[in-house]
Amino acid sequence: MYYPYLYGRKYELLALRDFATNHPGDRNVSPVVEPLKSDVGDLKRAIQRLSSQNFPLTVILNPVRGEFRDQANLSGWLSSLTSQVTPTVDFTPALLCDDRVSYADVDNFLNQFRSGSAVLVYNSPALSAIEVSRLDQDSRVGLQVIKAGGIEPQARGGLSPQKTIEILDCFNAQTRNADYGGAEFFSRQYLGFRQASCGYGDFTVLSTAIPGSGGPPGAVVVHATYKEPNSGEVWVEHFVSAETDREAGTVEGKFLDAAGQLCRQVASRPGEFGANVAISSYQAQVAGNRSPGLGGNKRQQILHHICLNRQILLGYI
Fold first, then answer.
1. First to last CA, the chain
2. pLDDT > 90? residue 200
3. What is the CB neighbour count within 10 angstroms for residue 81?
4. pLDDT tens column, 214-227
5. In what order do the strands lie in the sheet with 234-240?
6. Domain 2-170+189-202, CATH
7. Burial class (CB in 10 A: 0-12, 13-18, 19+), 19
8. Spatial separation of the C-alpha atoms in residues 45 and 182, rounded to whole Å
9. Taken in order 195, 199, 205, 211, is the CA torsion positive or negative?
10. Contact 146/156 with Cβ under 8 angstroms?
11. Of all residues in the chain, what percent carry a pLDDT higher than 90?
12. Nearest to 123 by CA among 145, 143, 105
């Protein structure tokens, strides 16, 4: 199974809603969300939509990034969220195990939910290897997620493959959109994850850094993953607008340039990119000379990447 790890930004949640609408009840993709915003509105709506489509979603209930750097925001957010959607019914609850979380904290968290229904996300935890091994054998734990190598090798060796997944940061992020170009290796996780895990995951095709506010981009880029035909690995091709000057051109024109490049490659290499709703959206936008905006572009990139992984797992690509 493929586990995209997302941060609950609006365009990410909309991509998940798009996927669930087009693949109701799918059991090849299971997203994990670590929220950044203390406003529960977008997340609540996404949970409700995904739950209605019988699509699994895991939500971390003790986030620490973004607006939760101020932990005073956490209790109100959690109370508001759980008053509108129900853990273990509408979504799967998860605990982020980092250097602030003790074994007693984990035990208290697990006691709140029925056996096998909770997820632990390891991100450089304070837990000892013995404690991690004990939790691995705990029937209350349904799944263990290792975030970007966030666990010591000794502790990793004690985790059961049938309830463990690893999330890798596969995207080679650049400072500026104009710095991207061409195609590069992304991942070969799907080829070997079964040796030590029950699934695999990544942060899709966007940087894990929390973006700041800024003006219009100098260049617009479309990051599109594909299955490289010779190696079978997943690669990513960066389609960058020819105009890279922030003061020149329009965002709409730059998008149509980059998306047009993608559509031409899809037409010549359909077996590599596959066919899905995100690709269809890009094709319709180029044909209709219209732009979905920068957020819409990110939404479609994420959606395409999730769809590609599903198609690869099912052998469609």
1. 16
2. yes
3. 21
4. 678 899 999 999 99
5. 182-187, 234-240, 221-227
6. 3.20.20
7. buried
8. 37
9. negative
10. yes
11. 91
12. 145
Q: Report the SS3 class of residue 6.
A: strand
CA distance 11 to 66: 16
Q: Where in the chain is the domain with CATH 3.20.20?
A: 2-170+189-202
Q: Are 73 and 38 in contact (CB under 8 A)?
A: yes
Output the DSSP codes for 167-235: EE------SSGGG--EEEEEE-HHHHGGGT-SEEEE-TTS-SSPP---S--SS-EEEEEEE-TTT--EE
Report the C-alpha gap between 184 and 186 in whole angstroms. 6
* Residue whose entry in the numeric block shows the structure tokens 């059961």: 160
Q: Is the pLDDT of residue 197 over 80?
A: yes
- Of 92, 91, 82, 85, the C-alpha closest to 142 is 92
Does the CA dihedral 21-25-31-37 come out positive or negative? positive
Q: Are 184 and 174 in contact (CB under 8 A)?
A: no
Burial class (CB in 10 A: 0-12, 13-18, 19+), 208: middle
Secondary structure (3-state) at 146: strand
Reported as type and span, the H/E element at residue 306 is: helix 293-313
Residues 212 and 194 sit within 8 Å (Cβ to Cβ): no
For residue 195 the two structure tokens come to 């040796």
